[in-house]
Design a protein that fits this description.
The chain is about 40% helix and about 10% strand. The chain is of the alpha/beta class.
């Protein structure tokens, strides 16, 4: 997790441009650590081990001077440097004084590398180091948000103001123009299902498939309700049992998730046990419905071409705008391709595919399956819908 106040003070008070952490993705395993850039601050992965996260004298180092030397001469620290093009080490400042423990260790490993490998070592200032790191690993620039409640170390350092049950445990992923809004309305009629509040300008959050992802986890969580139990005490997350079935469903719906290339990975990283619902109709009907949607909104590109010409000829058109309209019309309907991508990250038991045309014709039967999938009390939607229509 990131602390927003910390990033604010780093930029406004000290104008910090580069820092480091050993907690991303997680403390273990060390070789999986990554960097990221958030709010203009470059955060690099820092290497750690018991050798330099305590204050030591050589004489009282666990295992003695021999073990310390072995770590540099082919051991742990040698291995870290060999397998990481950029390494950042942190130790207590007192280890540079006293009997110069830190200098001894780093000099030993540098000498060993110089003698027995062809590696060229260099040391550069932090800002330049950060620039060189992300030149090597540009794919790491965007942070991948993780659920702090699933890592005891992250949970301990997380703000006390945050609750683990402020995250959704069920998401309607789309695609667009298949009945996602109707399904959302039906689901939130159930007393055990709550949905996110609308953002400032839109009904959908589109967190995992758009620029809102860069706003961070705090931005996402603020739109979800904090769920309380029967005694009105905020539920505390048990990170040792993260897959327990929740007693209340917090729901999100963003129809742009379905055909987004990055959304499955991002969602899985943050919400690995979430229930995912896709609603599908005939892909040809879906494509035409999107085209009609654009016409209704007076889209000049849609108004300049018929649907038949859009499907048959726009692919070879030199006009990028027509090609984009064609892509938005047809690409979400490639159901097998998109579902396959979701199934790379989520188990089949976590994914429910709803027939959108059946939802329109027989919503009661569909809602029975949805309730069973979410493991909530099965209510009589026939009675609920009749009551709703009377109002």
């Amino acid at each position: 997790p990131v602390h927003e106040q910390l990033y604010t003070s780093w930029k406004q008070v000290w104008d910090v441009e580069a820092t480091s952490t050993e907690e991303y993705f997680h403390f273990k395993m060390a070789y999986k650590r990554r960097g990221f850039i958030y709010r203009g601050v470059k955060v690099l992965p820092r290497q750690t081990c018991g050798l330099y996260t305590h204050t030591f004298l050589k004489s009282n180092f666990p295992g003695g001077l021999r073990r310390l030397t072995e770590s540099a001469r082919g051991g742990e620290i040698f291995d870290i440097i060999v397998h990481n093009p950029i390494s950042i080490f942190m130790t207590h400042i007192s280890n540079y004084g006293h009997d110069r423990f830190a200098q001894y260790l780093l000099t030993e490993v540098a000498d060993f590398l110089h003698t027995w490998t062809n590696l060229q070592l260099s040391s550069v200032p932090p800002k330049r180091l950060a620039s060189e790191y992300f030149a090597l690993f540009p794919e790491q620039e965007q942070p991948i948000w993780l659920d702090p409640c699933r890592d005891p170390r992250h949970h301990k350092i997380w703000s006390k103001e945050n609750f683990c049950y402020n995250l959704p445990n069920a998401i309607i992923i789309g695609p667009q123009k298949t009945g996602t809004t109707a399904l959302l309305d039906f689901m939130t009629m159930h007393p055990s299902i709550s949905r996110n509040a609308n953002t400032q300008h839109f009904e959908e959050m589109q967190f995992f498939s758009g620029k809102n992802y860069n706003k961070g986890l705090q931005w996402y969580m603020q739109y979800f309700p904090t769920i309380h139990n029967e005694t009105n005490v905020t539920i505390v997350y048990n990170y040792s049992k993260p897959y327990d079935e929740p007693s209340h469903i917090i729901l999100e719906k963003s129809a742009t998730y379905f055909d987004s290339f990055d959304a499955p990975l991002k969602m899985w990283r943050l919400l690995p046990s979430v229930k995912v619902i896709a609603i599908l109709i005939d892909p040809a009907k879906r494509a035409y419905s999107w085209y009609q949607h654009q016409l209704a909104h007076k889209d000049p590109i849609a108004m300049s071409i018929t649907f038949r010409r859009l499907v048959l000829h726009a692919r070879s058109s030199s006009k990028k705008s027509r090609f984009a309209l064609r892509r938005h019309s047809l690409n979400p309907g490639m159901y097998a391709e998109h579902l396959g991508r979701w199934l790379k990250f989520f188990a089949p038991s976590q994914l429910l595919v709803v027939d959108g045309e059946e939802l329109a014709e027989n919503p009661v039967r569909v809602m029975e399956r949805v309730q069973a999938f979410l493991n909530v009390t099965v209510l009589d939607y026939g009675k609920m819908l009749r009551s709703f229509l009377k109002r």
